[in-house]
Amino acid sequence: MESVDVGAVAANFYRSKGGVSCVKVLCITRCYPPVIGGMEKVSFELTSRMANLTTTHVIANRRGKKFLPLFLPYALFKAVILIKTQGIDIVHLGDGALAPLGTFIKRFCRIPVVATVHGLDVTYSAKRYQALIPRHLGNLDKLICISRYTMEECVNREISAEKCTVITNGVNPDEFYFPDPESRVKLQDVLKTNLTGKFILLSVGHLVARKGVSWFIQSVMPKLEEDYVYLVIGGYGNASKGDEKTAYNQLAKGYGVRHRVFLLGHVPDEILRLAYNSADLLIMPNVMISGDMEGFGVVALEAASCNLPVIASDLEGIKDAVKDEVTGLLVEPYDVQDFLEKIYAHKRHAAIRAQARDYVLENYAWDRIAARYYELFEEIIGGR
């Protein structure tokens, strides 16, 4: 199936009408490359695609969390100047934590403000945070929730459902897709182990508790046959207060699966690409953690874009990232037997491999997601 560059099509249409700048958008984000992370990647992809559609200004924190106290007053000052001098029509905030900034801009600049809400930016459990952020989110013109579950969490905090809409995150379909018949050979060179005849399970993501990797190592891996190996890519979160990689290794050793569990930590994109195109299944064994949540799960899209089936816990925002029986199979959280049955369901995996990438191209390509954002911006401005 050939992908359609919706952004380019839209941009050409707007130019034919006298210029691409139908709506002037100001994007403010506290998470942006070169810092590495999921929200940073989302901000970069969205603002880049938005720039193909219309005149887009970006105020971004490129220096990480430590710079945030300085970034906020800078962003406010810069935003006011751009709004007054560049004729900005609408402001987009990259996440819910910036809502107080949005309230100020909306009130004093008389301009619509929209925010994307990811999950933890609305559920973070600190009392002061909960007393402040939901109230300011309710002041904004529109909240773009990346999943239905995120929208439910907003409504649970007395934010009007009419102010919320769901637009999922997207994926660059060709970022990791590389069907190299030698990819597994190259991957085993990286791992320095023989993968011949092995069934490769892969998990990708920062290893915070909600990812469920420790649960999977202790509850599912010991029950899988010896030819099943588990690759884990991502930084370490809160497995222990000390050396977290050691904690995971000790956990695997304690359950007799240390020789089949490979903790790779952060890896370059070329190794991640090899993993996506060599693995047999992506595993997302997420668990429920109070005060935390999986707002979406972009790695599920990245895997599906490589025709890699996903086996994922049926909870939270993952339900919008994994299309059951199309891009993967959803499993009851903590259900060891259900995980085992879905992992062993090879015929269903083959059907998913035949259709997953096409489904992602049709529904989740970043150009399509950005076009939905742009249409919403037009509606908001037109409504005013």
Can you walk me through this structure?
This protein has 17 helices and twelve strands. With 384 residues, it is α/β, with parallel strands linked by helices. The chain folds into two domains: 6-170 and 365-383, Glycogen Phosphorylase B (Rossmann fold, 3-Layer(aba) Sandwich); 183-363, 3-Layer(aba) Sandwich (Rossmann fold), CATH 3.40.50.2000. The strands form two sheets. The protein has a six-stranded parallel beta sheet with strand order 2-1-3-4-5-6, with helices on both faces. It starts with 5 loop residues before the first helix and ends with a helix. The model is unreliable at 1-21 (pLDDT under 50).
Number of domains: 2
Instruction: State Rg.
Output: 22 Å
Shape call: elongated
Largest sheet, order of strands side by side? 2-1-3-4-5-6
Distance between the termini: 40 Å
Which CATH class of the largest domain is shown?
A: Alpha Beta
Number of strands: 12
**Contiguous helical run count:** 17
Spell out the CATH superfamily of the largest domain: Glycogen Phosphorylase B
- Helix percent reads 40-55%
Low-confidence stretches: 1-21
Biggest pleated sheet: 6 strands, parallel
Which fold does the CATH topology of the largest domain refer to? Rossmann fold
Order of helices and strands: HEHEHEHEHHEHEHEHEHEHEHEHEHHHH
Q: So, CATH architecture of the largest domain?
A: 3-Layer(aba) Sandwich
| Mean residue pLDDT | 90
Which structural class best describes the helix and strand composition?
alpha/beta
The proportion of strand residues reads 5-15%
